[in-house]
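Page 37, top half.
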Amino acid sequence: MRYYRLLDGTGRAHLAAETSDGTLSSLTGLNSDATDFIELVRASKMTGMSVDAIASNILSSGTPETFSLSDLIDSSKNWTGIGRLLRPVDPDELWAGGPGNYVFPDEVLANMPPEGRAIYDGERPPMMYKGGPSRLVGPYDSVAIRPDATQTIPEGELVLVIFKGEIVAYSTGNEMAAGVPGHIVPSKVFTGCASLGPCVVTPETLPDPTNLQMELTITRNGNVVGSSTNKTVHRRSPEAIADWGFRHDTPPDVALIYTGGCVADGDHPVQVGDVVRIEMEGVGYVENAVAQA
């Protein structure tokens, strides 16, 4: 199933599942303990039932309150109407995978500098810390650029939702990379450096996330100034990426790993006021205006 978090018109928070195309059914309205996707994960670990089976049991216990996904997206983007989609999970940590995860074409590899090729060919994929939950915004909130950045590149990525070191869901998001004078690698940690959503999808619903269509579009003053399309093809499996991420560490309860820039447009760095849309097959899209951190 696909799981969403939302505020209804009264400001009440709901965990909801997409029970039919475009219709979200509230789990919270039927069971007051079902307020967060991670709570379903904890229940799954204790009972041995899958997350989707637990959600199905809750939904079968009564008639759930329903919401229109398209209406919620519209009101979230425009701050009008009732209701709003929130980021689907609140992680303890954010991590960004590097170029060792993504498959580069032969012509790119041929022109890659030695230090870059060493990273690409290394056994361990590079992994960069992106901060805690305060840096993460929802699917239709504003991402940011640092005022001292020479350029900021939005990157659309497959996102792994990790619970105690294990993948429990997938999502997509925008992982912002800011070039800062005097720094060899881009800055990854600043307010609004990543977005997430609109939902998380369980492995039962999305058993293979490694060959999905992704699209990125950058709009400026109503005109498209940059775009990129690609498949979510990785050199390492999601499980291997998650394993390397915490192999020599104690994982937090909940972490997000942005697996590497699948779609990006380095020729068109974003500016304040731009709108970046990133869509991933099977998940949906995030659409974030760009503000200054």
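Page 37, bottom half:
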Amino acid sequence: MTLLLQCRDVSKSFNGLSAAAGISLSVGAGEIVGIIGANGAGKTTLLNMISGYIRPTSGSILFNGEDVTGIEPRVLTQRGIARSFQVPQLFLNATVRENMMLALSLLVQPRSKLLRDFGDQGLVEDVDRMLQHYDIQRHAHTVVRSVPQGVRKLLDIGMAICGQPSLVLLDEPTSGVSSDEKHELMRRLMGRLRADATTTIFIEHDMEVVREYASRVVALYDGQVLADGQPGDVFSKEEVLRLIVGKTENAPQC
């Protein structure tokens, strides 16, 4: 398997408090990695370091064999790292279609111009194709503030990864989504990412979701890697059950 991402002993401190304490992680092309851990374990800090939103206090991050430690997010996006956040970053008063149009327009347009013409037939076709990919085309002409949270999540993630990145980082993709919606959301999302063989790292608190959709699980505790392996192996470890999942293996959330 070709290595796509390497985090080498990365640490991050905020005002003397450690949020990540020497995390080492290698991810191969095409892997789908679920990150679990209690609040404060360093999950979002790790994604923020990989995506350039914060610079590690120490250690290094390699992407496609190149050191990208501390490179700003805009440049990393151009190199093929896409990032979505726990709270969808959307224009609530615009339609679903208009939001996707804006994302695609900014992606392909040279810096000398802000937007492609929204009447560009090629842009319209690209947008419709993306909405179909995530099965949200029926909401295309609905204002975003009026659509369900699951649709907002899919739209936000679709906008983040419309440039066909090599690596996708998802921070709690089912956060705020109802129990009825979350598995359908993940089915659509992971089906698309798997079909494109896109390397994916996602943070998730719902252990059922992690079990079903991650091919590998990394458990973080107190800013360090507690366990790393196939879901069955990680969830069978006593320290993972005790410190993250709970007292019983079947506990649904950490």
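Margin note: The mean pLDDT is 88.
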